[in-house]
Amino acid sequence: MRLVLGFLLLAFPALAQERVVNVYNWSDYIDPYAVARFTQETGIKVRYDVYDSLETLEGKLLAGKSGYDVVVPTSEPTFSKLVRAGALLPLDRAKIPNAAGLDPALMRQVASSDPGNAHGAIYLWGTIGLGVNEARLKAVAPDAPLDSWDLLFKPEWARKAARCGITMMDSAIDVIPTVLKYLGRNPDSTEAADLDAVAKTLQAIRPSIRSFASGGAVEAMAAGETCLVLSYSGDVIQAGVRAEEAGKGVKLRYSAPKEGAQLWFDMLAIPADAPHAAEAHAFINFVLKPEIMAGITNQVRYPNAIPASAPSIRPDVAAEPAVSPPADVRARFFTIGPVSPEASRARARMWARFKAGRG
Questions:
Q1: Beta strand pairing status for 121-132 and 262-268?
Q2: DSSP designation for 184
């Protein structure tokens, strides 16, 4: 018995010293090498979970006691909502010295979501636009306007594209501001008339939409199951890479439509009740190293906010317009702000009716 007790007493300190960090991130959104290297260099074990919608992330964090230490909410509306709700821990910048390398101009753009940039650091950013299988689409619609939202939101073009398949991202948070912008309305509008205009636009193309997806949109495009997708820029590029690797002749392109594409930022943040806040700070600081961020951009094809990472980004990746958008294209990007809980519920109800095909 004494030997057993002695063994347990020796084992408990070892167990207590085990360091872990629980990370909750978008699917297909990190370089696996970065995770392995973090553990190798720090001795901190990473438990890594993924989600495929902001609604899922938001629900878990607002409920509290999620058990996660690092999360990656999008600046609007989820990150700002979590900040206002007190669900995020203010970052200790002294423990994240690599945050000094963040692009000041980009950080100013997210300050409206997080006054003083107190609760987050930019992880990656991108836009919402159209993924196109140009060959298949041109076969059914030779004159299709590939650089315009008309391709999806005008019923006559949507009907033609439907012959080779349309997939829409399953996110009211992302789609509704895009339609508002397309209609010349304020993307943040909560006016009933503007929401009705969005509903009419979406209902008019509902018969042409084959499927709704978040994480699955990439696989459907890469497999050639659809020819038109409303999705995130990097997801479309990833799909194109996978399609090329499959060697079946599927070629995809990403388009940030000329009417304007929504610009978003995904933020590294720490839940207020994170069980391992010290390890969370260490993980964020590690990820913000220029060489680590370059590796992540090379892997997932989204631009980052660390200018010093540029020399380590592969030339073929840097050449992607979605990774390095030209100045004239960036000038047409728009960001969104927070909306009230009532407006969010109204948008969610409208989205449910749209998906169900009800007016």
A1: antiparallel
A2: T
In tens, the pLDDT along 213-238 reads 865 566 777 777 889 999 988 888 88
Write down the pTM of the prediction.
0.84
Q: How many angstroms separate the CA atoms of 320 and 48, rounded?
A: 28
10 Å Cβ neighbour count for 321? 14
| 141-192 tens-digit pLDDT | 999 999 999 999 999 999 999 999 999 988 888 899 999 999 999 999 999 9
d(C-alpha 168, C-alpha 139), whole Å: 21
Closest CA to 231 of 169, 179, 176: 169
Q: Is the peptide bond before 77 cis (omega within 30 degrees of 0)?
A: yes
Q: How far from the centroid of its chain's Cα atoms is residue 243's Cα?
A: 21
Assess whether 317 and 344 both reside in one domain.
no
Please give the residue range of the domain that contains residue 312.
Answer: 18-125+265-324
Domain count for the chain = 2
